[in-house]
Design goal:
The chain is of the alpha/beta class. Helices cover 49% and strands 13% of the residues. The longest helix is centred in the middle third of the chain and has 19 residues, at 229-247.
């Protein structure tokens, strides 16, 4: 088995390498400094199309205009901030934009409460620093530093999870487009093409609010949840198929009906009302994002392959729904039982087997 086949998750630039090469070969439009594709070719890569007989799969299914704005932002000196609910494909869009534009999506900072200013700028190999003093050999470059010197794009995931003083270390970088290294008495200027794509979760509001000064350095795009049932079903089916192929799950892909039921349940519990708007339902404490629906169905395939018939059965879906919805036993168990009895039970024979499996799982 090749090295690639042993990798659990390939970066976008390797996963879709054939598509990127096909777009490069067909691309006749001007390419900005540091870009491997023109803006129009990047748009095709993200939203789908054809290039030289190769099908370009859509990486983001949703508002095409938002993708156009995102690409246009990266042509300017402003950074890009993608905001949305969990599961709205912020990180996926960020990774694929970077892969298409620069062919390297690996320059990533994962924002956490423990992220430090050194991880944004640079740090030192302290053994070498103590032995020989400040030097290029002892310098440890951050992903942002490496993106600046190569004219690439750095990705900053969940920026609002970082402390305010850490976030503010970005202000001078985004304003001056340089990193100062006083220990070596020099500054590192950004090459043309450098930018930052950051993501922020709307559920994290109030954790570490971004300052107005930092927000001014970004063009902010809000990525909405899928607008309707059909769009969300399409997204879920596509991603489940891709993930199942990557994990080599030996089970049949979920039937359209199974995907539709899972998405329907998630959308109704998320919005607090049934799809026909006839009945209000209580919302659980969790988010129930599109990403969780994808994970639920992928896990259902794993269950079916390892312990079932090879096709997803109601029992496989019930196990996933229980885990996704009942995150807090005290708060969510009653919400889920009420939904089962007041909504799912009344939907007739099409839902009977899933209802029975969920009721048994929920005790």
């Amino acid at each position: 088995m090749s090295e690639t086949n042993n990798v659990l998750r390939l970066p976008a630039e390797r996963l879709y390498a054939a598509e990127i090469e096909a777009l490069k070969a067909e691309d006749r439009d001007p390419r900005p400094a540091g870009w491997q594709l023109s803006p129009r070719a990047v748009l095709t890569y993200i939203t789908g199309g054809r290039a030289g007989g190769v099908d370009i799969t859509p990486k983001y299914i949703g508002h095409r205009r938002l993708v156009e704005i995102a690409i246009a932002t990266l042509l300017t000196d402003r950074a890009l901030l993608l905001i949305g609910e969990p599961g709205t494909a912020k990180s996926w869009l960020s990774e694929n934009l970077t892969a298409a534009i620069h062919g390297d999506s690996s320059k990533v900072i994962q924002g956490t409460a423990g992220t430090s200013e050194e991880q944004i700028r640079y740090s030192w190999n302290y053994a070498m620093l103590l032995a020989n003093g400040p030097s290029d050999a002892a310098l440890i470059k951050s992903p942002i530093y490496r993106a600046m010197e190569s004219g690439g794009i750095a990705r900053f995931e969940e920026i609002s999870r970082c402390a305010s003083e850490v976030q503010d270390a970005l202000i001078s970088i985004l304003s001056e487009k340089t990193i100062s290294i006083p220990e070596l008495a020099r500054e590192v200027p950004a090459e043309r093409g450098f930018s930052i794509i950051a993501t922020a979760n709307t559920r994290d509001r109030g954790v570490n609010d971004m300052s107005a000064a930092l927000k001014r350095r970004f063009n902010i795009l809000v990525l909405p949840s899928p607008a309707d049932l059909e769009t969300e079903v399409e997204i879920v089916r596509k991603r489940v198929g891709e993930i199942a192929a990557n994990y080599e799950l030996k089970a049949a892909l979920p039937e359209e009906e199974a995907v539709r039921k899972v998405v329907t349940i998630f959308r109704e519990l998320r919005s607090g009302v049934t799809l026909d708007s006839k009945e209000k339902v209580k919302a659980p404490s969790g988010v129930l994002s599109t990403a969780e629906a994808i994970s639920l169905l992928t896990n259902g395939m794993a269950l079916a392959a390892s312990f079932g018939s090879g096709s997803i059965e109601p029992e496989d879906l019930a196990a996933g729904l229980q885990g996704a919805i009942v995150k807090d036993e005290d708060k969510d168990s009653g919400v889920w039982k009420e939904y089962l009895e007041n909504v799912m039970k009344k939907r007739g024979s099409e839902w009977r087997s899933l209802y029975s499996a969920c009721r048994e799982m929920n005790g």
